[in-house]
Each structure stands twice: as C-alpha cells, then as structure tokens.
Amino acid sequence: MSHGSTARHEVLSVVFRVSPPAPDAPAELCVLLWQRALAPDRGAWALPGGTLGDDENLPDSARRQLAEKVDVREVRHLEQLSVFAEPGRVPGLRTIASTFLGLVPLVADPVLPVDTRWHPVSALPRTAFDHGTMVSHARTRLVAKLSYTNIAFALAPDEFTLSTLRDIYCAALGYQVDTTNLQRVLTRRGVIASTGRTAPPGPAGGRPATLYRFADARLRVTDEFAALKPPG
Amino acid sequence: MSHGSTARHEVLSVVFRVSPPAPDAPAELCVLLWQRALAPDRGAWALPGGTLGDDENLPDSARRQLAEKVDVREVRHLEQLSVFAEPGRVPGLRTIASTFLGLVPLVADPVLPVDTRWHPVSALPRTAFDHGTMVSHARTRLVAKLSYTNIAFALAPDEFTLSTLRDIYCAALGYQVDTTNLQRVLTRRGVIASTGRTAPPGPAGGRPATLYRFADARLRVTDEFAALKPPG
Q1: Model pTM?
Q2: Nearest to B5 among A54, A83, A185 (CB)
C-alpha cells in the first residue's frame, strides 16, 4: 500500500425541501439535483458542488458552489454531514467528497438554472456516481435529527398551522404522524409555540387554525435526558 | 482562487477512555495522544493517525493507524466525526483531516507504545497543530450523544454497579449527575437493565450492589419523540 499521495477534494450538498401539497399530490420531500451535460456519467443527475478551492474552508466552499444553483439566502440550515472516500468512487483522479445537508423552507421557491430541478426523494432519476447513496444517507440523518432536535424549523415557514407542520413531518419522515401527538410532544418540549394568531380561513371555511412558530431558528437538541442536564 | 488542485488527506482518531477512580483522584475522561519526536511541532502531543492510503476507505485507515498505538480490539466504538480543512491548518502541503471518535471501556488498559499516553482532557499538555480543537470538538459530540443515545455502553465494563456508571457519566460529561436520577432515566428508556446479580461487597462491607448491563452494544438513539416513531 502506498501512503502519502494526494487526492482531489470536493464538496457536495444534499439540499432538501418539502414541496407544498397540491390538490392531486401530497407534500413530498425533494432534493436539488442538476443534470450532467458532459461525460463522465452524462445525463445523470448530480448534487450541486465541486472542487474545494485552495484558500477555502468547507462551509465557504459549499455555499459558494451552491450559489451557482440556488439562492443561498433560501438555505435556512447547512451542516457538514459526512465524507465519502471509497477508492474509485468517481473515475480518474482519486476524489474525496465532503457532503453537507442543506434545508430550504416549504414556502421558498428559489429560481433555478435550466439544468437544475427538485426531484422527489421517493422517485429519483438516474443519479451520478455515488450521489444516490449520499441522498439516502442525508435523508437518514434528517429523519434521525427530526426525532431529537428542532431541525424542522429549517423546513417550515416562519409561521404555520399544525396541518402544515404535519405535512412537513410526514413528507420528511416518509410515514404518517398524528397531528395531535405531534402538537403535544413539540409543545411540551418547547420546540414550537403558538403565536396567538390564526390563519385566514380556507375556501372550505371552518374554524380558523392557530398559527405556530419554532421557538428557535438554530439547531438544538430538544430532548436531553433530564438527568444529564448541566447544572445551573 | 484556483480550483482543481489536490491535497493530502489524513485520518485522525480522538480515542477517549474514563480512567478508574483512585483513592486520591476521581474518575477522569482521558484522551490517547502520542508525543511528536520530529519537526514540525516537535514535543507536542498529537492524535493517532496519518495519511489515507491510496486503496483505503476512511474507517479502514482509522483502524490501521490506530493499531500502531493501541490494541484496536479494545476500541468498542469508532465513528466518523468531522472534517478539518482550514487552509494552513498544518505547515506545508495542504492537508485535510477526517476525524473519528473512538471509545475504550473503563476496564480496558491496553499496552501503549513508549511515546503514547492517556491524558486527562481537563489538563491537556501542549497539543500539535489543531489537535486540541479536535479533542474539544469530539468531547462536545460525546457529551451531546450521551444525552440522546446509549453511547456510554462503549465506555462501561460489560457489567457495572450504578456507582461505577455514575463515575463514567460524571467523568465524560464533566459535571456531577445524581445516581438515582441516572438509574431511573436509563432504566425507563431501556438503555440499561439489571443482570439480577450483585457485585462482591467491597472492603467497607455494606449491602451488595446490583450489577447492570447495557441493553445494546451498538449505538442507537434512545429517546426518539414517541410521536415520530415509525409505524409497526
């Protein structure tokens, strides 16, 4: 085994957004992909990103490269995920990829370049290299973090009804959750709070729904063991 | 800014162990470091690791390089942590570091090379490059994971009294926790279970203490929001 040689380093971002529900389709978790126009893997869909610049750190590089595909002001949360370093994961020079998880709120609908689209995670087109694995890995991390952090703040509008929040959780988790349970757990743990306002009634009328907001707009663990809380 | 150049990639492991309490010293969280005999940063203490091999993936590289410093069979848990990629973080060729978190149980006391020692995290010697930051980052992650996973399984002996378990949590967290609360929370959540056996009485006599064990010897999130549990 030889040691000490160098590799290319790339930064790739898995950016998720829940698409709003339509009359004929439920809300869905979607990922931002662009279609490769050149070899290798021409026609396959790839994650936004590229080679780390000589004078860049990883988050700066992720934001710079994302900016070519999407308005980064719409990316509410961006965190380093993992490293993919299998030899031969892409053709040619050895390339090590650092992945980031990015989240865009449901209401945001940033203008995209012509080669770029939101694809439902449940029905991905042909993906380039190991990018499909990266999407699965990021989705698994998102699902785990939904269970012990407030990370859904970055997928939700600033204010939302419980019905919208349930749509977001169901889409992100990939299975049904009960609105009443969701409200009870997230309120008790201080993750969401009522704004005291109500949403305008929909076309069907009915009782106006309370608007909620996330208590924090930064990631935090919401569910520490009480016995392990630091003193003070 | 130039793009497309290459970098060296290294893999570094932050391996923690709780030292057993002694008559004159409490249990302490310690980290495995070796002292650099050569420039750069001669005499400073460094994390075990080195350059990623051409045909290696990251976990294989971490285990291979750890094996030079410590019996890797004693490393009960090893997981990828983060990437450190600031330009200029080490002198010379740009070097990107992937860090791993490794945990060794309290009872294990592996033979170490002469240049290698366990250092209390609360009183580190002069550390090389950005390795001190990596230790802090790893400790923060360990503390966070203690609050929502069963990760303490990898720091504990196979069977332990509640008093030993409290020593481990206090050392790893860096503050006091109450034995009764710890037992109540970890038992209720199915993290630990009684073995039905008791420890031999100590020199002071007294009632024999119940021996507990961790229910799982693999990392899992122990505290999902009940409302978000997948169906079935």
Answers
A1: 0.88
A2: A54
